[in-house]
From TrEMBL, chains A, B, C, D:
GO terms for molecular function: 4 iron, 4 sulfur cluster binding; amidophosphoribosyltransferase activity; magnesium ion binding. SUPFAM superfamilies: N-terminal nucleophile aminohydrolases (Ntn hydrolases) (SSF56235), PRTase-like (SSF53271). Catalyzes the formation of phosphoribosylamine from phosphoribosylpyrophosphate (PRPP) and glutamine. It catalyses: 5-phospho-beta-D-ribosylamine + L-glutamate + diphosphate = 5-phospho-alpha-D-ribose 1-diphosphate + L-glutamine + H2O. Its cofactor is Mg(2+); [4Fe-4S] cluster. Residues 21-240 form the Glutamine amidotransferase type-2 domain. Mg(2+) binds at residues 307, 369-370. The active site is at residue 21. PROSITE patterns: GATASE_TYPE_2. This is Amidophosphoribosyltransferase. Keywords: 4Fe-4S, Glutamine amidotransferase, Glycosyltransferase, Iron, Iron-sulfur, Magnesium, Metal-binding, Purine biosynthesis, Transferase.
Length: 494, 494, 494, 494
């Protein structure tokens, strides 16, 4: 049977931008690795392909890495017991740079002259290829194809004396987006790139200090959210130190922060607080803005589950049109079924979504979704609504058109595959076969975030996926052939 | 580490009644087993412990059974190719009678003198133990501890001549609840017990005839819902017959039907049509009745996800209080994590649910849930709401108090563990620490289903879990010691 | 890649007759199942496809069955702990009747009215198909395709009252070969068919009573060999009884025994005592007889390892020609390798055997093997010797030509594939490309066993594979089409 | 159950010196990796803990590494197909330096500035720890704890220009024993340390060039043995070159070779040719020398199987005492069984060996074994012989007493555990409870190898395990604490 006959679904659609990574660290907790497992589980939506945890027990580092989810790999006694100590960090990942094989799964680890060094990274180094070539030329041997490993070799070969100076020396050579949690025999280091593109928050539980990509990771372990790590901030937590002995450094010059705006649109969980805002409230406000900007006369507001739900509630409350579950989402998804002949249309989407036919039949509906990437899923959902008898189908999207790729650690299709790059809005409407289609404006999005409008000179967020306005240089992207070269050189481990 | 330190969650809570089984059959489709796999996947919520499919290729029966979900076991090419033929039936199960080991996974199969005989059963035979003892005394050898196998031995040893007569002879000896899909070398047989306690629907896709526990299984394969199989009806679909050649039999005397009312409250998917009603609409109507019967002054209506959502929408629309997502449900659950010390409270519930703290803080909320079984989860959710800052927590339950066990194929705790058996409503309110607690009345439930009220002489539904009014005799239950005896005799396969 | 490009070897050659089963039982030992695991491991040469152990702990039976070897399945603590009790029996098997799937792996088990009944069987019931059809006609439902299950159903449906009488009633209806070890809630039963075709020995270890196919199973657990179970003897060991309370029964009329002669030629381990004779001594004597009957002028006597070694030592000592290792056998075999192009000749045999080239080159050699079945391996070994430089290759076989199939539980190819059925001895010599070929005479074989000659009227052994003189009727064989019919009826479990 | 109740056996006894590695390489064969799999399978006796193969397809390197045997990991189509190309090298290993985890399994691989570099190593670098510390100090990051990785980093950081010069530069810095097969994008490199301590042979099959630890790896693929690689020789086979274009280098000054003498005593397979001698012939000659030096009056010569067999044949032929199989070895070993109570004595040895009781009883026997390491197995075998009724048990050992550890890649116990270090010969005799015990003299061993005697000034072999005369300096051994330090620094991957 041909591969094309196979149908696949994922908990997060192939037709979504995929967040690349989630990171978690804890210092000073008696069962640090059990806490890390829970924290990573709460961050699972940020990366489902692999997970890893490294712990430090005062004498040695212990690591377990595995392909797949946190649950199933880190929920058994034996694994957690094999990760002893009061300090641990962990990582969940999608592959953005480097193929997904076990050697690329983080935390990465190296034995440096100063002792062990473990690192978990969310983001993407946009000059990693160039730095790698230079390092290899000088005799460094890479064990992964991950961009993150560049940082480690820069630390290993730095001419500075203390580990902290070597680490800062390394960071000053890299460009791009990074939130990092590192472990050394002396302590834990957490830092965020100067623009703060990727999120990182700090928490506390008794004497323990925690770091995570999102606050939901603190909720699951019962920790308290303290504050966001600042863009360009580097925090050192010495082992055995009380929460009060942590030291903060700001090694970079003053730069305006530009955190990723898409965290608010889709990536983060609605129950997280991102850079000071409740994600759920922002999304509801986005829905309200969308209703104001793009009203429509209809019987029901229907969310595309689950990511469209908060915006749909906001849209319904603003417009007064009733919010209803017109699409039911299955809890049992994630694999590939054999298609039984050509009679079954749109099977992939049906494994995940089913029309609530009794509700929809004969009605005019507004569908609310967070974004359109390739548009293939939107098309299938509109068709499913029509087959269920919908009289009119109006699509409202809770963000501006996604027209540009991300090079900061988000798995976007190449630009040519983005529907909004290929078509204007009427063209997109025709493609997805909706009766009408409208997007939130870029200023509407900033309004929902509490800004008056986008500051065009010095924008408050990184919104490159909507605007193409990339806040850093993109060295490797400009030398794109390097990537292929790397792939040829590297061993394929089978 | 002790077992008590382990924390477990399930996609459907331990503190819910669990549906026992889903069944699916298709005759006359070129890739019957692929269709069965999809149909069972859509019925996965009815049983997650094991699944099986049997196909008939015109010469031989082929069966694959596996512990675990349909996805992961029946979504690969090799398995489906090893199940050839145009006729197939399948089963997903929880164990209600008989431990869950592979030999109890259905479809069950036997070589009779008339040829092979496969059966998939939803329900529970309430005199199975008694019949089994008699059969063993006469020389029958059982291969499973499943109640379903009794039916097969009754067929094998019947004195009637044709298989159909032998089958009817067998059914007349059993009491309890059963929806059955059987396969023989001549055709497929679908039937429902005289009271129609468990659901069974018929569908059509081109020339193919389909049977399933719920209509969602037809949606996923693109089939059309034709009608419910009637209580006491037995339908024969000869192999190779067109959809028009199916024959219907009614071997039992006229009895008033009493389908399970809990299918509408919780078991069935909201997008299914059960005995003529849209489950989603009924649940919204239940929510509206609940608002009428038990109003409360509050800021938000919050569903306990996901089963409480439709009733919460109904409650919100009726009461005018805004519907909000105050509890966020994780998509990544289903395993057991190690608890990191005693600092983490309510971890089990937190793995699945997290409070939307920014929304809840300082607010008066109405929580809507479908039922209370043991009450342990309700307690934890109320506590979670309070820890998130809720000012008042009012619990409203979308069904009457669950005071009695089910003996018709639903996995209920023994009666002594049901909170509503142990405590009156004020006692329950104190137990779950809510500010107020109210249940839907039994007549309110019947009203939501379109009845004026419960017909106390000849009730329209089986509502024994609420009323204790069991519609059949419970032979084995009255001889409860038999079960232990069975367990002693049987081989433990390890 | 086509299956024909795959090369496979087995510890025991595809080109050997394969013993079908080994059985082991122990009553009265504190860790009966651990003892059974060891005993079966020592009997592993009698069957490598599957293994099983059933224990009785005074209240319940516990069984574990697995495809594959004893080591790897029964050498872990958890499995053995899940098989508690002082009584256990076990089985290793090749499939002779019935495909090899888990449901055919023994011990078989059934819940009878008298309680549980487990049985491990070495042999083959030659009228099993006929009995099965009759039982199914009367309503019995079979769970396996194994001939052994017939015995259980005959017991279940017998009209006698006590289990022992029912068991004897069953045995009187079966024909063929059987050594059986059974377990009931009352005790262990061991018995051997009236002709004693398959072996069975009794041992003792302190108060524990043991039964096994071969004495090596006693050696490994440190037990003492007491005696062979007599042909037609049935021994009952009540649970908890001292070794002195065992009771013996002889339910069959007096018949001359005819134990399998091939046990001495190949099946049994050389360190076993079979029906009173040391297998090693008999094989050496066979080698000596072979040297007397078929002398040859040569430089070295070379065994085909490992089964030809004892006869080769006997041949060398009798002839005065030096015994040398001209073929080295690898210890690492048992799988399938990909053939690297067509340059590698005879790869299958080379994975297992390699010529000791430095020894062989330029020499005249006598190869000693135990038997020739299809002849394909003999051909490859002769060719390997020639490629290694052997000047002359003389093949001497330590048994008469194998011209007939076995129907008593040995996996023989159908008769048409036996080289000795197709060709006379000169033809066989040409086929295997040897310079000369000779077999031991049938009387020579009997002489090696201490007899004057074969008693043609009432032969001392079953030698049907050499002579075609079958000691029982072969009902199923005479109705061979039945087997196909069975295959069509039965469910294929995938 | 305590670990001490578990009993384990290995195909090669725990009480043997264990060879550490086998290596194989082939260049110019259309299915190089399939050939490597076969070659490694034939070398499996040299290392059973892990195996790996790297191939080069003209564009990229492909590697598969696995814990366990070659069979089971490299005998399936998919794995071999994932290793395309005409050049491949492979490795089987015991862990001698570095724990056995997947990252230590060879071939090791690195991306150098010159392209990929893969290496398979047999031997041990005796100054690896010291070199590693220096490299780490300069910024190199190690991915394994294997001594072999030092070579790669020395190449990566060398100041020479061509890869060949860098490689020679690296080799000149290491001390110890190494036979290496390397692959680069230009070609294959095979070399042997200046003393030739570990073996390496060259073969040919058509145009393909092969390298292996032993000639048996050529036999299995049908290749021709060409010659041994000389001590200190480095051979380059450019990709695509004919067999005639290979180039040989001799970068080291002239040194007398000292190949390992124990290869002849035990490590190599009897059908291999090692440094010009047939291993089988040498072992028979060892047996003959042993009979001349240490005669005894006895009934039978009994080999301890399988390693003692050739020497036993030599002893028997020289002494005229009959060679007999008094110990039968099981083919089914390799796991751990649960000990059933304390009644079973010497279970470990019995799983592997069983006395041929019928032969031994009442006889005086000479046991022939290759060596005594800890002596524990010898004791058990002597006891087993006595329990089987042996009247006298005389032990003769086919090598001198093993008094010193090996630091050249052989897994020897620390010196304090060697029986011959702790006791003199009468003490050893008492320990193993034999009636007499004698060893071959060191000069007798050299005689069996065709030398007049050991040349004490410049010995012909490395015989340090017998004499303590180590041919290289042992830098790391003199700084033994370094090893512990390494263990503390390195990450434990779980």
């Amino acid at each position: 049977m041909d591969r094309q006959d196979m149908l696949t679904t994922h908990p997060f659609d192939d037709d979504k931008l995929r967040e690349e990574c989630g990171i978690f660290g804890v210092s000073g907790a008696s069962t640090a690795s059990a806490m890390a497992a829970l924290g990573l589980h709460a961050l699972q939506h940020r990366g489902q392909e692999a997970a890893g945890i490294t712990s430090w027990d005062g004498r040695a580092f212990h690591t377990h890495r595995a392909m797949g989810h946190v649950a199933g790999n880190f929920d058994n006694d034996e694994v957690i017991r094999a990760l002893p100590g009061e300090v641990a960090c962990g990582h969940v990942r999608y592959s953005t740079t480097g193929e997904t094989s076990l050697r690329n799964v983080q935390p990465l680890y190296a034995d440096l002259a100063s002792g062990g060094f473990a690192v978990a990274h969310n983001g993407n180094i946009s000059n990693a290829m160039k730095l790698r070539r230079e390092l290899v030329r000088r005799g460094s041997i890479f064990q992964s194809t991950s961009d993150t490993e560049v940082i480690i070799h820069l630390v290993a070969t730095s001419n500075y004396r203390t580990l902290l100076d070597r680490f800062i020396d390394a960071l000053k050579q890299v460009e791009g987006a990074y939130s990092l949690i590192c472990m050394t025999p002396e302590g834990m280091i957490a830092c965020r790139d100067p623009l703060g593109i990727r999120p990182l928050v700090m928490g506390r539980l008794g004497d323990a200090v925690l770091f995570a990509s999102e606050t939901v990771a603190f909720d699951v372990v019962g920790a308290e959210f303290v504050r966001s790590v600042d863009p360009g901030e580097l925090i050192v937590v010495p082992h055995g130190a009380g929460a009060d002995e942590i030291r903060t450094h700001r090694p970079f010059g003053e730069v305006s922060a530009r955190p990723c705006i898409f965290e608010h649109v889709y990536f983060s969980r609605p129950d997280s607080i991102v850079d000071g805002s409740s994600v759920y409230s922002v999304r509801k406000e986005i829905g309200a803005q969308l209703a104001l900007e793009n009203p429509v006369d209809a019987d029901y507001v229907i969310p595309v589950p689950d990511s469209g739900v908060p915006a749909a509630i906001g849209y319904a409350q603003q417009s007064g049109i009733p919010f209803e579950l017109g699409i039911i989402r299955s809890h049992y998804i994630g694999r590939t079924f054999i298609q039984p002949g050509d009679k079954v249309r749109h099977l992939g989407v049906k494994l995940k979504h089913n029309a609530n036919r009794a509700l929809i039949d004969g009605k005019r509906i507004v569908l609310i979704d967070d974004s359109i990437v390739r548009g293939t899923t939107s098309l299938k959902i509109v068709q499913m609504m029509r087959e269920a008898g919908a009289k009119e189908v109006h699509m409202r999207i809770a963000s501006p058109p996604t027209r540009h790729s991300c090079f900061y650690g988000v798995d976007t299709p190449e630009r040519a595959k983005l529907l909004a790059h290929k078509l204007n809005i009427p063209g997109m409407r025709d493609f997805i076969q909706a009766d009408s289609l409208a997007f939130l404006s870029i200023d509407g999005l900033y309004k929902a975030l509490g800004e008056a409008k986008r500051a065009d000179i010095r924008p408050q967020y990184c919104d490159a996926c909507f605007t193409g306005d990339y806040p850093t240089s993109l060295t490797d992207q400009d030398e794109a052939e390097v990537r292929d070269q790397l792939e040829l050189l590297s061993e394929r481990v089978v």
